[in-house]
Amino acid sequence: MSMSEKQKMLAGEAYRPGDGEIHADQSAAKAWMVRYNAALGESASARRVLLAAQLGAVGEGAVIRPPFHCDYGYNIHLGKDVFLNFNCVILDVVSVTIGEGTQIGPAVQIYTADHPRDPAERRAGLEFGRPISIGRNVWIGGGAIILPGVSIGDDAVIGAGSVVTRDVPAGATAVGNPARVLPV
Hints:
By secondary structure, the chain is α/β, with parallel strands linked by helices. The chain has helices at residues 5-10, 20-38, 44-54, 119-123; strands spanning 57-58, 63-64, 68-70, 76-78, 83-84, 88-91, 96-98, 103-104, 109-111, 113-114, 128-129, 132-134, 139-140, 145-146, 151-152, 157-158, 163-164, 173-175, 180-181.
């Protein structure tokens, strides 16, 4: 039996994003974001209920300040006490895992969505995703961009405005574009 386009997407394989099942999930996520982003004046507990309704996992004490934008939501897994500041964007065509105690500054962008390097495959409309893993107690400064397939180790620091193109080891500080690990 062949895989559906959504199954291919979730497996990180090349898929066609125009598929009806995928569009239905995107539409549901858009409707959810309208509700969530309008809940700015609501209590933290009311916003938490909304988060739990759409995200894959929401640890105790996790907070996302609206406005927030994502592709689907169900591929986002937040640990305990995770904090995302205003205007964060997560393109979650595959898993995004954020460990407990991690703090993410405003306007951070986390992209699992990727595109084939071969121009013929791009013309054919194919896309794929590569998962992102962010460890525990990480601090990501405002405006940073985390690219597909990156892992960031526990206790790492990502400087504001950095573009993270490769893995960052635990305890390291990475800054710049492309982000480079600073010597100890």
